[in-house]
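Risk register update: the risk that structure generation would not scale has been downgraded. Supporting records follow, first protein first.
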Amino acid sequence: MLGFLFSKRKSLRARVLTEFGLVLALMAIQGGFSLYAITKLCAILISTQAAAQASYAWVQLVTGVAFAGAVVVCYRAVQNVVRGLAEASSDLSNEMAELTTRAQEFSAVAAEQATGATEQAAAVSEITATMEELSRTAQQIAHAAGEALTAAEDGQGAVRQTVAGMEQIKARVDDVATRILSLGEKSQRIGEINEIITDIAGKTHLLALNAAIESAAAGEFGARFAVVAAQVKELADETREATSQVKSVILEIQNAINASVMATGETTNEVARGAELAQRSGSVITEIVDRVQGISVATQQQRSASEQVVTTMRDIQEVVRTSASGSQQVAEGAAGLAAVSQRLGGVVARLSHDSAATKPLAGEPG
């Protein structure tokens, strides 16, 4: 029977140590009760238990020892908890002090960022306005480049038509020159025939003169022949005069033909030079068209890049504002944590004071 009671006392002590210690710790931390008040509550419970079992002295002894031991063990457990809380509070205070310092530095940086954000916002606004102006200018350049491209294409078409016209003129001039050369050759042939006629007329004139002399020598019998010889001589003279006039005309025609040939040659050369210049102009206009197209493409790319820069700068401005706001919130949060750490330190100090005040009740030496 006595062994059973000691066994029950041991299990009762363990149960009281576990449950009563947890209750006291929870009441001290969550309920705001002081350890002094909890220890008084233990004393009241012990006296109540002793009064209830006053008629059984041996049970009173066992129960008193159990509850007294429970109070001592419970006090030591709570004291260990308080000591751990004090150490944790000290570490937390140190960490919070460092965090507060960092938060203050971060707050100062945040203030600088806020100031810089204002300046950056102004700079971003100026850059945005400049980029928008560049975008409008690029659009105007693109429009002007489009008009220049249209004009250049029209000019290129006109040059092609000019070159074609020059080629036609050259072909016609070459044809005229060929005909003039042919006419010169024919006039030269006519001149040669005229020389033959002139020679024949000279010989005829000489024969008529000889016939007149012979008719005069014949006397009466040569009178008729003299008349014929005179007419032949007159015809020869007219022929010689006519051939002389024809020769003059042929010479004039030949001179005109030679001048025409020279003129057509010069015209052909001028037409060739004009065609070459027109082709060069066409090449230049083609190059202008290519450059205008390149300018148009580059202008469009510049406009697109300017719009992207404007968008990026606005995003940067928003990020800077958000960063400044977040920095301020972090600084405020650090300040709040520092205040919580200070309150926790006060609670731990109060728990340590209550623990020291309850040493006599728990039977601990001072």
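Supporting record for the second protein:
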Amino acid sequence: MDGPAHSRARRPRLAGVVAAVLLLLVAVTGCVVNTESTVPPGDRVHAQRVDALAAQLPPSTAAAGVLKVGANVPYAPNEFKDDDGTIVGFAVELVQALGDVLGVEAVFYESDF
């Protein structure tokens, strides 16, 4: 049941689920007013896994436990390199949270677009 046709049939649904999660994360982010940070610099907030969404991942991605992400890094604050050369930024944190929700690790690769 995991043949090419089955995989293609799941792609639009997976894309819709991912888009809905991203939209929800962006919407929820705008609903919070903080006067000070509750997360020490260098730490990141982890989101809770949602099994129903994780079940929508392609079997190969779920088995690998990794979501590979290309990032064009000269666009602070979206994505850029910190002093250590690590890819950081708003988009990175958002995709890391998405990885948490899907139960996989988001791994970033520098890429030109």
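Residues 22 and 98 are 7 Å apart (CA to CA). On this basis the risk owner (M.S.) recommends closing the item.
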